[in-house]
Specification:
The chain has two helices and six strands, in the order αβββββαβ. It is of the alpha+beta class and 226 residues long. Strand 4 and strand 5 form a beta hairpin. Strands 5-4-3-2-1-6 form a six-stranded antiparallel sheet. It has a domain of 150 residues. The termini are far apart. This is RnfABCDGE type electron transport complex subunit G. InterPro entries: FMN-bd, Ion_transpt_RnfG/RsxG. Keywords: Electron transport, Flavoprotein, FMN, Membrane, Phosphoprotein, Transmembrane, Transmembrane helix, Transport. Pfam families: FMN_bind.
Length: 226
């Protein structure tokens, strides 16, 4: 009888230990799963936060980039801490293409200069996008290439990163010169081997002057500086 009681107690104790072990394993599994879930949530939140922060930085850099570009092309008398620069979306035009912008710099409600983007399909690669600053009386102050896929070593010679070719446009208005390269009876030099690109920048800037001459900002929609 005593042996049976002892055996019953031992068996009961063994069952209790097995249940405890099973409970501990279940508890550890639940804790492990919960830990992995929390880690995943934290990682995803971190990634989303980084993505949002990166997107904000990129957008800010782009904004700063175009603003800096615009200011670098404005006449000196337009560069004042009180100068207000307003962006306008330009309508599609036979002269400059589509999706272009005009930046108007004004001081005390008096226009001090303009910056405009304009496109041409006269280069080797389409489009060749230019950007130029203009004086208040609508003469070229400074022109530059905004986007180009012209042939490296040839067409890209017109870019300011490779020289001062575009400086020959400075201080010229619509009627001040013959807007073409010398090869075609105009007043502008061109690069041998890159006549097409050289001529494209000349004619594109001439068309930009024609577009600027007829623009009425009252009829245009304002846009963001980007």
């Amino acid at each position: 009888m005593a042996n049976k009681k002892l055996e019953k107690i031992l068996l009961s104790d063994t069952d209790s230990k097995e249940k405890t072990v099973r409970f501990s394993k279940t508890k550890r599994s639940l804790l492990s799963a919960l830990s992995l879930t929390l880690t995943g949530v934290i990682c995803v939140s971190g990634i989303l936060a980084v993505d949002k922060s990166t997107a904000t930085i990129i957008a800010q850099n782009q904004s700063n980039s175009i603003e800096g570009k615009v200011k670098s092309l404005l006449p000196n008398d337009a560069l004042n801490n009180k100068t207000k620069i307003v962006c306008y979306s330009l309508k599609e035009s036979k002269y400059i293409g589509r999706n272009n912008k005009l930046y108007v710099a004004a001081l005390d409600n008096h226009i001090k200069g303009y910056v405009m983007t304009y496109k041409t399909n006269l280069g080797y690669s389409d489009p060749l996008v230019m950007i130029a600053g203009f004086t208040e009386d609508k003469k070229v102050y400074k022109a530059d290439i905004f986007f180009s896929q012209e042939t490296p070593g040839l067409g890209d010679k017109v870019d300011r990163a490779h020289g001062s070719y575009l400086d020959q446009f400075n201080n010229l208005g619509l009627e001040d010169t013959k807007w073409d390269v010398k090869k075609y009876g105009g007043d502008f030099d061109y690069f041998t081997g890159a006549t097409v690109t050289s001529r494209a920048t000349v004619l594109a800037t001439y068309n930009a002057l024609k577009e600027l001459e007829k623009i009425d900002t009252v009829k245009l929609n304002k846009c963001r500086m980007n």
